[in-house]
Each structure stands twice: as C-alpha cells, then as structure tokens.
C-alpha cells in the first residue's frame, strides 16, 4: 500500500547536472579517470588543526555550545576579519557560527526574503542559491552576465532588476563557477542600490582566502554602509576543511539575532569539536594554508596556458577560487553532451557550464583542485577530444 504523497517542495526540484556527472563518473568502469569536476580541495586538513580537534574531544569538549557558537571562535573570526579584510564586527553580537557555508546561506535567505520576494542571482551561479530561495517561498531571479567579458559583474544589469519587491541579492566573489573576483566599484554600486530599496546583499565569501593576484576584499569592505550586507563564509575551501562542516555568518546585531533564533529549528548549534579545529585554523600556523593558495595559483597558470594552446577554447583568467569556466562554444555542442563525451570517450570528468544556468551553455567548468600532473593528463585528453570534433 502506497504511503501519503510527499510535499511539493520535496519533489519539485530538477536534478542537478553537477550530480549527473558525479554519478556517471562513479559508475564508470575506467580506473584512470581524471576528475576535474569536484569543487573540493585535494589537500588534507593540516595536522595542527586535526590535533586541536583531537585534544578538544579527549578533554571532554563534546557537549552543546551556545547557538551563536563558541565565544573564542567568534573572537578569532572577528580578529581575522579585521586583520585580513579590514572589516570590524562585534564578536558578541555580529557573528553566528554555522554548520558550513550552506547553512549560513540558508539562514541569510530566511532572514532577508519573505515569501514572494525576489532574490537576484547573477548567472552563471551555484545552483543551491536558487534551490534554497525556492524552499523558503521566495522567487529566484537569474540575472545573466556576459561571457564576452568573462562573466565579470555588470552592476547595471543587476541594478535595473532591483525593485521594492527585492528581498536579497546574492554576490559570490571569488565566483563559483567562474573564478572571477568582482570589481570593488561594481560591488559598491550594487550594494548601495540594494540599500536604496531596503534589500539585503548576501555576500558568499567562501573562496575569499583563495585570491591569487590581489588582496582579498569582501563585499562588506567594499561599501561605506554595510548595514544591508550579510556576509557568509566557511572553513571548507580555503582551509581544506570540507568535512568539518563549519562556517559563519556576519551581519548587524538584529540580523544575527534573528538568524540565531531560526537556526534553533535547523541545527541548534555548531559541531563543538569542529569549532575547536576552526580556532586552531585561524590562530595557528598559517603557512600550510598559504602554501595551498600558492599551489592553486600555480595550477591556475597551467590551466590558463593549456587552454590558450587549444584554438577552439578560451577562458577568462581566474582571479580566485579553483575553477576555470572554459568557453567551448566554437565546438557548437551543448555543455552536457560535451561533458558526457569527455567522460565516456576520453576519461575526463568535467562539469557542464549549463549546470550553472543557460548563460553558460556551451561552456565547461574545470576544477584545478588537482595535481599539475593530473591536470596535464586531463588537458592532453581534452585536446584530443577537441581535435576529434574539428
């Protein structure tokens, strides 16, 4: 006998093309796949961070913490924001520790957008923003950026979409999936226009530690009036701590207070042991994290050079994160078909650009969170694929 029907929200999502490629790769019979689709550091969490978690667990730090998170961690994050980003926050009232960046984004949407409010999302975009906006009953609005300028942030395109029904605008810099770092003047213009319409800007800064050619600057640092900015971040990417599930949300006290109340319905409080690991990541030796960033920058250069050697491909130089959005429109094939062919015919796993919205159809996203040796092998195979399509 069939059970009751599932709620609409549980059945209405389309399958992500990111997961399509991930699942196809896992089902492959090949034992030599070059996996360039995964947005995860290939480095292990540094030893001093793991040791701090172990010591905390052995000392009995295995109980609930405040819903806001450990005071010591909030102080460490506030010091980091001041030192590295030039942003001042009160650790007691303007910071909330979260279960990774995804919970931080969800809480930011919950406190900023009512049912029916428009949530503006520049495209290409990480699809979770759209799915989370739909979950809370808001209306996600994709704002396509132009591939002609490498999907740089076009403030005019966003500003013309802002109206009094706009609850929030999501800005991700450095960007997943393009690796672009948004121009500070463009960010400032969007943030100020949002404030004029009483709309929030949700700044996803999860990759801000992985900026290669300039000092990292968050959205809050780019504006003189950050009252409408909700900054979310995570230890996952820049600190190689994806499995620890620890992040944070920074905003004005009334925003943090509201998010604190709502998160009691989600996770109550963050993972205690992971919070001690995060303290060690922020206050311990920084050399391991700097070495990771330098390695990504070196790999970025290899990727850009290899793409430049293939006439049918092009790519805006990634300024941060560990992704390259490769323009393969000259091959005149849909993104998903190209990614499937690269997998089945050449043992290279990529993410179709169309997974990030129609604006990137004809593109493929490559992650360079992989060794230079494997990247070179992957590009040898990509080049072979392109030759076969000439």
Question: Describe it for me?
Answer:
Homodimer. Its EC number is 2.6.1.-. Residues 32-380 form the Aminotransferase class I/classII large domain. Its cofactor is pyridoxal 5'-phosphate. The protein is α/β, with parallel strands linked by helices. The protein has 2 domains: 8-44 and 287-389, Aspartate Aminotransferase, domain 1, CATH 3.90.1150; 62-283, Aspartate Aminotransferase, domain 2 (3-Layer(aba) Sandwich), CATH 3.40.640.10. It contains 14 helices and 13 strands. The chain has a 7-stranded mixed sheet, with helices on both faces. A hairpin with a 7-residue loop joins strand 9 and strand 10. Helix 5 packs across helix 10 (253-263).
Secondary structure layout:
Elements: H1 8-11, H2 17-27, E1 34-35, H3 47-58, H4 71-85, E2 95-98, H5 100-112, E3 118-123, H6 127-135, E4 139-144, H7 155-159, E5 166-172, H8 184-196, E6 200-204, H9 219-222, E7 229-234, E8 247-250, H10 253-263, H11 272-283, H12 287-308, E9 314-315, E10 323-327, H13 335-346, E11 348-349, E12 351-352, E13 363-367, H14 372-388
Parallel strand pairs: 1-11, 3-4, 3-5, 5-6, 6-7
Antiparallel strand pairs: 2-8, 7-8, 9-10, 10-13, 12-13
Helix pairs in contact: 2-13, 3-11, 4-11, 5-6, 5-10, 12-14, 13-14
GO biological process, one term: amino acid metabolic process
Domain Aminotransferase class I/classII large: 32-380
Protein name: Aminotransferase
């Amino acid at each position: 006998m069939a059970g009751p029907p599932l709620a609409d929200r549980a059945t209405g999502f389309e399958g992500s093309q990111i997961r399509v490629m991930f699942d196809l790769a896992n089902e492959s019979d090949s034992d030599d796949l070059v996996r360039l689709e995964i947005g995860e550091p290939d480095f292990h969490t540094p030893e001093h961070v793991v040791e701090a978690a172990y010591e905390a667990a052995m000392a009995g730090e295995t109980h609930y913490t405040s819903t806001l998170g450990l005071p010591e961690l909030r102080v460490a994050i506030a010091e980091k924001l001041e030192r590295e980003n030039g942003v001042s926050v009160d650790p007691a009232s303007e910071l909330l520790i979260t279960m990774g960046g995804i919970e931080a984004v969800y809480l930011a949407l919950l406190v900023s957008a009512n049912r029916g409010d428009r949530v503006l999302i520049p495209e290409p975009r990480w699809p979770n923003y759209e799915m989370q906006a739909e979950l809370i009953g808001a209306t996600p609005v994709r704002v396509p950026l132009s591939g002609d300028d490498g999907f740089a942030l076009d403030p005019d395109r966003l500003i013309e979409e802002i109206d009094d029904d706009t609850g929030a605008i999501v800005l991700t810099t450095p960007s997943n999936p393009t690796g672009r770092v948004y121009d500070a003047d463009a960010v400032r213009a969007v943030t100020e226009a949002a404030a004029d319409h009483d709309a929030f800007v949700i700044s996803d800064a999860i990759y801000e530690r992985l900026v290669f050619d300039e000092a990292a600057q968050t959205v809050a640092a780019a504006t003189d009036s950050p009252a409408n900015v909700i900054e979310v971040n995570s230890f996952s990417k820049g600190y190689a701590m994806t499995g620890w599930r620890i992040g944070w949300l920074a905003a004005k006290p009334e925003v943090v207070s509201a998010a604190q109340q709502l998160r009691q319905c989600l996770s109550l409080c963050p993972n205690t042991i992971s919070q001690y690991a995060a303290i060690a990541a922020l206050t311990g030796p920084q050399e391991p994290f700097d070495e990771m960033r330098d390695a990504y920058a070196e790999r970025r250069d290899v990727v850009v050079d290899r793409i430049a050697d293939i006439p049918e491909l092009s790519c805006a130089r990634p300024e941060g994160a560990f992704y390259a959005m490769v323009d393969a429109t000259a091959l005149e094939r849909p993104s998903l078909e190209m990614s499937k062919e690269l997998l089945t015919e050449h043992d290279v796993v990529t993410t179709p650009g169309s997974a990030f919205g129609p604006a990137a159809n004809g593109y493929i996203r490559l992650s360079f969170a992989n060794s230079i040796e494997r990247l070179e092998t992957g590009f040898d195979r990509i080049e072979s694929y392109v030759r076969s399509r000439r």
